[in-house]
Amino acid sequence: MYKELKMLHEKPEPFSRYTTNIIWTDPHIAGQMLRNHLNAETDHASRRAETIGSIVAWIDQKIGLAGKCVCDLGCGPGLYAAQMAERQAHVTGIDFSANSIDYARNYASVHDLPIRYLNADYLVDKMPDKQDCASLIYGDLCTLSLEQRKGLYCRVRRMLKPGGIFVFDVFTTQQFAALKESTTFARKLMDGFWSAEDYFGFCNAILYPEQKVSLDHYLIVEPARRFEIFNWMQYFDPETITEEICEAGFEVLDVLDVATGEPWVASPRELAVVARMPE
Asked: What is the domain range of residue 189?
């Protein structure tokens, strides 16, 4: 146990270890993630229902969703995809989580929404083409390393029509400035989130000020197994994300407050980018 605790307090290179598959394929954890996504009263996994409505509304105002082919990357249980389809967009939702996709498909069926959902990894699996718009909402981009982001930008460019729009949001350096390093230990840490079994949970929150990266490194100890979780987050300012997306071949049209669609003003909240493929 000493070895594991010692490793918990070491500072790995940013984005050097990934455990995303555990979060989305472990039945218990994936179920907890879906439950958090569907909790419309908190921002823990998805934004509050009224905020989602506001975001879809300004996206519609910016690009005109009706009749457009839209691919919602990392769609989760379809909270944004459903509202875009209600505005007459032809929506394809893609997500790594089978639990989330199953929920999204059932919701679309019950509400008679003609949404195509794919249980796939948008970093490696086949993507739809000839799309008018691609969306990536609630900081998904921030969980990726620079090399992963570059690969994703290439894949998005291939899926969009000439002049197509890429809408995404990122967490900001103002939010990073509010973070603090900490170490947490508890029995059944996070109220049983990590396992249906009894367990002890440790979390070491680590900051990388130069790179503007944070890591929440978890060690979960059950009676019969132990596992680690590495939750990475990259933070941006308008200049760094604009430079990065322009280097990937896009033109940045707007940098906006994600909740309102108004021009972004420096504050400890997320910003949205509306970028366009060259004609």
From this structure: 173-235
> 83 and 53 in contact (C-beta within 8 Å)?
yes
Domain at 100, CATH number: 3.40.50.150
Q: Which residues of 91-126 are buried (b: 16+ CB within 10 A; e: fewer)?
A: bbbbbbbebbbebbbebbeeeebebebbbbebeeee
CATH number for 229 = 2.20.25
Say whether pLDDT at 4 is over 90.
Answer: no
State the first-to-last Cα distance of the chain, in angstroms, to the nearest integer. 58
pLDDT tens figures, 240-278: 999 999 999 999 999 999 999 999 999 899 999 999 999
- Global confidence as pTM: 0.94
Instruction: Express each pLDDT in 37-92 by its tens digit.
Output: 888 666 666 788 899 999 999 999 999 999 999 999 999 999 999 999 999 999 99
